[in-house]
Fold:
Amino acid sequence: MLTFEQARTVILDSVSPCGMEQVELLASLGRTLAEDIRAPWDLPAADNSAMDGYALRAADCRETPVRLRVIGQIAAGGELTTAVSSGCAIKIMTGARIPTGCDAVVPVEETETLDGYVIIKETVRRHQHIRFKGEDVREGETVIEAGRVIRPAEISMLASCGRALVPLFRKPRVAILSTGDELVELGEPAPPGMIINSNAFSLAAAVREAGAEPVLLGIARDSREELRLKMAEGLKADAFITSAGVSAGDHDHVRELLAELGVEQQFWKVAMKPGGPTAFGLRDGRPVFSLPGNPVSTLVTFELFVRPALLRMMGRRRVIRSMVKVTLAEEFKKKAGKAQFIRLRLDREGKGFSGRSSGDQNTGILKTMLLADAMALLPVERTVFTVGEEVDAFLLGVESGMGEK
Ligand code: AMP
Ligand code: MG
Structure:
């Protein structure tokens, strides 16, 4: 049986970025750049003032205080044709071009004015308070590399480079099919023994959160005909996720039918808990994930296997969440032979975190997932984890309020 790391490697080795598309600048937020962006011009485009003040010649201010005649003023975006000669200064606003002949700016706060003259009290360094042409970015320089995620700072750079359209990797369309005779759709009555198809929603939400586009195919009963029909539909998408029906039950037909439809299984079963019966296959190079139906297992396996794959399909460089060290505040036990992912609540402790169980770790308990700040990995062969021991964990949406629950 594969470890979860091996299984993830199999997946990541078999997926590659979807095509690219041009997207309007603002709509590119949070998405991944498909091509290197080069600056079409210098930034700033011209020498300009970093302060509101007076543009002058530093050589005129070797001995201070000194009086310079103010011969005009220039605002940002303004034009000035007269050159500035010795003994003169120009009133200048932040962002305005440095007039010919000037080589320094003195902030207005450090000056006084009198009868058309400005009085400079301190000596002036050449080039002070000037932002020089090209000091931020040189024409032709690569300013953002392909594979980087677009944040507000990247948006700022793209706009400054005149990019109204941005080359991005396309969002994968991810088909989601829930399977099982016990399922009813949200809004329908759910008599005892039946359950609402919540996985369709959790998976769609997780797909969307990863930045891809969910396509909901509804429920397929555990009948071969219905499964075959809906699976054929799912296999048209860039990626296909099925929920449930991959264990060893009498009605678990998912893998067999996928095989009949041409999906080449890459693995089935991973040495982990929750999520053991996960299967992964490929059809014409497109990934097919068969996740166990238990809502906790579905989310855990999405996080570990599907999310990194989708990020890679969107051209991301970094696809695996970084792990943090968590000091256990309570003891945990498990069997050898499988890695276990436990749901923890975290508290800040010194520079790091301490973690305790967020509740019943049984895979049937969804609430424990809602209360968790992090998921910690208990390695395959180990069995007892003592108080004070450090384990690896990844954070689950920390910005949503860790430590505030
Ligand atoms: P299975 O993987 O088919 O053995 O299903 C495992 C458990 O997951 C069962 O208790 C199912 O009722 C539950 N389950 C299956 N599909 C869904 C779904 N779409 N939404 C919520 N729970 C589900
Ligand atoms: Mg089932």
Summary: Residues 180, 244-245, 249, 251, 293 surround magnesium ion (ligand 2) (CB under 6 Å). The CA atoms of residues 116 and 154 lie 44 Å apart. The two ends are 38 Å apart (CA to CA).
